[in-house]
Amino acid sequence: MDPLSFLRIGFEAARIGVEAQAVISMRVAGMMGLWDVSPLESFQMMQEKPVAVAAAAEAAAFALMRGQTADRAISASMTQIGNHTSANMIRLSRRGPSWF
Fold this sequence. Notes:
With about 100 residues, this protein is mostly helical. It has one domain (about 5-95). It contains three helices and no strands. It has helices spanning about 5-30, 40-65, 70-95. Helix 1 (about 5-30) runs parallel beside helix 3 (about 70-95) and helix 2 (about 40-65) runs antiparallel to helix 3. The termini are far apart.
């Protein structure tokens, strides 16, 4: 086990937290009419959660079945969650404020 793996996992968790907060802020601003979001955004944000959690659980389970250590399994799981938060942040930030 890499002695710095838990530090990397902590930074990954912090990045995911910052991206998730940005996504939440843009979605709430969209619900108030201040950010340009899709009319189906409210539905999409509820629909994507089970998919992201299932992908993360699957990645962690496969890592453990391959005999990898717990930190690798956590990292695999967080990579999946991070992919979803990054995609959401990029997609929503490209739309921009609704008054432009």
